[in-house]
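Hey, resending since the last one bounced:
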Amino acid sequence: MNSSYNASSTKHLYRGTQIVYYILGIIEVLLAFRFILKLLGANPEAGFSSFVYGITYVFATPFLTVFQSSHIVAGSIFEWTTLLAMAVYWIVALGIINLFLMGKSVSTPEAAVKLEEQERE
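The structure tokens again:
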């Protein structure tokens, strides 16, 4: 009965990590589109650019005043803040996944091996 519980909890942890990676992937792709559109000087009034800027604004807002945007040529912007946002969301997602994995059941021998590895570091 214990092994079926472990299998069930492992399955839930796996699904949880999949969900975090999926959400991270969506956010990263949208922010990458934002970065590329700004870099290429896309018309902010165009439907697609407006859509991407509108959706990504909520994710980029906390970082908008960290760095100044670099204007490469007229209309083209190298938006450092979008790259920072992408890095921060990636690190946060990895932190959440590691928290999930800490809840994974571990056998005593496996725990002993992991502790020995940590002591060597």
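The beta strands are 70-71, 77-78.

Sorry for the duplicate.
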